[in-house]
Amino acid sequence: MTRTIAIVGAGLGGLMLARVLHVHGIPSTVYEAEASPTARTQGGMLDIHDDSGQLALKAARLHDEFVRLIHPGGQASRVLDRHGAVLLDHPDDGHGGRPEVRRGELRRLLLDALPEGTVQWGRKLAAVAALGAGRHALTFTDGSTVTTDLLVGADGAWSKVRPLLSEAKPAYIGTTFIETYLSDADVRHPASARAVGGGAFFAMAPGRGIFAHREPDGMLHTYVAVRQPMAWVAGIEAADPAVALRRVASEFDGWDPALTALITDGETDPVLRPLHALPSDHRWERVPGVTLLGDAAHLMPPAGDGANLAMVDGAELGQAIAAHPDDLEAALTAYEQTLFPRSIEAAAGAAEVLDACLGHEAPHSLVRFLNQARDA
């Protein structure tokens, strides 16, 4: 196969695709807007599922290396009510099938498994033009251009490749996460550290939630969830960071101090992440020479599946191309026939998880959900 493959976006999905293609002897180029692998932090912990993300890592021949990245104890989970009462406490017994790793370390694993030069940094896509016969011309903000036989949009929620296939745009779903960190928590924030425990932590009431992960080295990574309109979000974003934290904390008046300290004691400026989603049944008609993966294809509420889905997308697309090396359209058709139903099912599950966390029966709805998942 001598045709060119351009992957836009060096997230987990795009890198997984490039790695699986490399395993099969197929070259590709990844174009990434960020200036370098270390241009920004890569987020917190990810639970990598044995029936999805780990299968992709096996297809990439990287599972053994992945195992070395696992954070022991990270699969523990606990649910509290707003008063700090523990409603559920599942320890990590090593058999949960969803071990936790740092996103940045997983991304580095994929990057290091690619030939030098596969990823071109500082290449922000500005425009795409169809040339006919499945070929596309990519223009970058630095003025450079390339042409490609296969274009894969792995460029996330606000994909510039998606409009070639679909008119769908992400819509705000009425919930915003506010992200902050507490360091050296066992020493500096012992009450909050005891509340969080050893893994994932959820404290909720209808429309409000404080979620946290214990990361290696005593770090607590907090996501505060509120159901508020975008006007509220804009007001918080415009405020001084200290004022913003106080406004967010005011949404949790009357909550246990060990829980609200996860907000008020935050040691980093709060980062607001309004949640957007594509339609749950998002799909497109086959367009020659182009497809999508990850959030570009199926942006949905966070429920622990996003990174796993992106890696599965990348692995399956790579395998489809390897199975049809002389017929890219057959490869894309095979890939999308499995992508669409998987995405629809996952989107329905993500909506169910978000409602369990923040709906009118929270936190008891999440306790039921987690117990059912554990017994399944």
Q: Summed up, what is this model?
A:
The chain is of the alpha/beta class.
Radius of gyration: 21 Å
Query: Can you tell me the residue ranges where pLDDT is under 50 for at least 5 consecutive residues?
Result: none
Strands side by side in the biggest sheet: 5-4-13-14-15-12-16
User: What is the 3D shape?
Assistant: globular
Tally of alpha and pi helices: 13
Strands, count: 17
Structural class estimated from helices and strands: alpha/beta
Helical content stands at: 25-40%
The helix-strand sequence is: EHEEHHEEEHEEEEEEHHEEEHHHEEHHHH
N- and C-termini, Cα separation: 44 Å
Averaged pLDDT: 95
Largest sheet: 7 strands, mixed
Beta-strand proportion: 15-25%
Task: Explain how this protein is built.
This protein has 376 residues and is an alpha/beta fold. The chain has 13 helices and 17 strands. The strands form four sheets. A seven-stranded mixed beta sheet has the order 5-4-13-14-15-12-16, sandwiched between helices. A five-stranded parallel beta sheet has the order 7-2-1-11-17, covered by helices on one side. Strands 8-9-10 form a three-stranded antiparallel beta sheet, with no helix packed on it. Helix 1 links the parallel strand 1 and strand 2. Helix 1 runs parallel beside helix 4, helix 1 runs parallel beside helix 11 (306-323) and helix 2 packs parallel to helix 11 (306-323). The protein is globular, with a radius of gyration of 21 Å. The termini are far apart.
